[in-house]
Request: fold
Amino acid sequence: MPELLRLATAGSVDDGKSTLIGRLLYDAKGIFEDQLEAIRRTSEQRGQVETDLALLTDGLRAEREQGITIDVAYRYFATPKRKFIIADTPGHAQYTRNMVTGASNAHVSLILIDARKGVIEQTRRHAFLSSMLGVPHMVLCVNKMDLIDWDQARYEHIKSDFMEFAARLNVHDITFIPISALRGDNVVQRSENMWWYDGSPLLNHLESVYIGSDENFIDPRFPVQYVIRSQTPDNPDFRGYAGTVASGVLRPGDDLLVLPSGTTSRIASIVTPDGELAEAFPPMAVVITLEDDIAVSRGDILCRPNNRPTLTHDLEATVCWMDDRSSLAEGKNYLLKHSTRTVRAMAESIQYRLDINGLHRDEAVSALAINEIGRVSFRCTEPLLVDDYTTNRTTGSFIIIDPATNATVGAGVIRVIATTHASPNVVRHGGRVTREDRFASLGTYGATVLFTGLSGAGKSTLAAGVEEAFVRSGRSAFLLDGDNLRHGLNGDLGFSDQDRTENVRRAGEVARMFAEAGSVALIALICPFEEDRQLIRSLHEEAGLPYVEIFVNTSLEECERRDPKGLYARARAGQLPGFTGIDSDYEMPAHPELVLGPDSGSLSEQVATVLERLEGFFR
Amino acid sequence: MARTRIVADPGDGVAGGSGRYRLSDLAALEAQSIHIFREVAAEFERPTLLFSGGKDSIVMLHLARKAFWPAPVPFSVLHVDTGRNFEEVLEFRDRHTEAAGVRLVVAKVQDDIDAGRTVEDSAPGATRNRLQTPTLLRAITEGGHDAVFGGARRDEEKARAKERIFSFRDEFGQWDPKNQRPELWNIYNARHHKGEHIRVFPLSNWTELDVWHYINEESIDVPPIYLAHRRQVFQRDGMLMAETEHLSPADDEAVFEAMVRFRTVGDADCTGCVESMADTLDLVIAEVAATRMTERGATRADDRISEAGMEDRKREGYF
Reply:
């Protein structure tokens, strides 16, 4: 049984993307004789010696005239293992919107790099957009290897160059393939010229990349699309709710919660013309009947009582603006189409525009122009039922429609801050001992200390000193070091803003548990954004646990002079885009409990200052 | 959805067992098309479905029935009749739509010619292909349709490969390829002003082979001319044409009997057939899978006008 794989391709005007697709179709026998004959004729008319395979994909007359691809084109081919849908998108800067369109549904993002040029702005932009859209798999084809004499060293250099950038993105599966689209090396056939490459050729890789776990089968969401009523002799009083399963698995007998009304019922049956189903999962389009006669209409979402989306008037989203006749501006009104519901919304504020080359934030903006990407807050006239885009592509995305022209002017991926995730119905499990019992029995108290500051400021050194002092005095303390966490718990996170926030959130949650257990949790993290620090603070305040934020205030000059890991040097050399202090901001803590720095005395004096500050809580 | 097409993945070793939830390629295509039908029914007031009796429109109607089952299809179907259709296909059209319980509206090109709204090209060999467009636009206006389903597939032709699933048409029914609405995820923008409409292509991502596989799996009835049969034919412009009341051979074109079948059903005067022994669906599938010519390239004289032929016609409002 073949599977369907959606592939989005991106590349610059002349890095050979069209040739690669032409080659893939040609070698996989996805093109027909008459198509080949047509491009053979055109190539001849243009005086080209070899048939230009790129002509296969350049569809519109305007493109043939200009010699570039101007819109998303869809191509189809199949092998015995899989059926492929290629969304072929142009690479030049002004067409970011097409790239976003093509990649929104993709399983795999295929990016071309010209081996002579290496990683360029374009490469980074495409990688960033793929990551923003949550495309699960990325394939980088280093093309035109024939023009650099199949040079392995050059290939390895490009590879490590890209990986440094990609560490900051949210992509977990990255594959590199050295190819020559023109000659066909490593496209369908293994290359004899690149004996040193031991991976699969491209087609082989596309046939075998595992996409089975890309859907969310955990959180049931069924947006009601259409209500089906029937009064036929066979079905005298049928009412069913039609829709496409967005995520999770649904089975007859499952308890259901209807949102936003909040009524509950149970799935009576999952019906299709071919018979009833024992289960339904994404992306199946089915009809659900309920055991109870309750009001359900288009725009509602069916979910489980203990696992529900967030109901909110306020949306935080990363938005890509796609309209060349207007820009997204604060205070303007739009229509948002989210899943099966359309609401009016105002763009309340633009927090920042993202420079997708360096990934840093430009906060001094109040509008987004075409092809620009930024973080935007919307206020909706009616509440929407949303999930974070990373957990749900359907309930985590929306398009923006201009109410005057009806044009689709933008698209957004929703960011739900994780602390708001927990449904009010998820009840915390109470143990049999209270916090007071625990602390009294251990003869200690729990607390959390955050050490924030630039890389190289001395956070870890100070925190380690505090940890040692506590432990030697018979108290339990534990250092949660940012770098160490990234090796384990946070090993799946990169350095995108989103991942950094998640990194901080997890560190905060773990610290809270340590504190709850009676330890002093010491977090040493750069934690550059005030919003994120506020998150850790509120976690502890809500839990009623002592919390101290210490700003290790060492100047950038000093940190750079120390440069213990050589990171500043690399960042200055452009090898670590988005590095805090160089091309990403460190927001000064607004209200730290303590500020320490090189002028605050020796290490042991500073440790004593911290202990003294904490003593206040423990008396 | 045929349950046989949802199979457990025996090789799954992933925690949580998510790998067992896999759809076949056809089941995934079917689900996407059904989603589109429901979205249109929910967001438009007066949709209609273009039904020619060709295999793509038959599959569309089949998907529409599945999308709203057990309720009836909530819109009518429309046929633009050039007056040059194959007799067998017209019979099939009437029989099939009646069995499906949908209302059939026929818009005749001849009516527009008779009323002087369009002028027939009097050149010898001229087809009525271009004349379909004004009749189609008239039928859309008369029916007050704000959405029109078409069976076009992106694998058919280069210009179609770039068209959106929801394709916006201005008040003159025109398509502007440079100014298409971005289409992301499975969110479709249905908004339009009065007088404008949206062409909707639920089969956008299907290929010719997918259509045949689906017809076979779902046991869908198709007009007999799709299967190999004996017929009086003659050669013209490198294509095999059927002798019918609409098309006669020239003096130097010899008529002979052959086993043939049609890959598309267009007008009898411009749709060629191919020699074939495929008289069952399985054999048709085997033949399509092995073929090295696109269906339009092989048998449609109307698409050979120029390389940009389809793009020009689409701009004017053709499907």
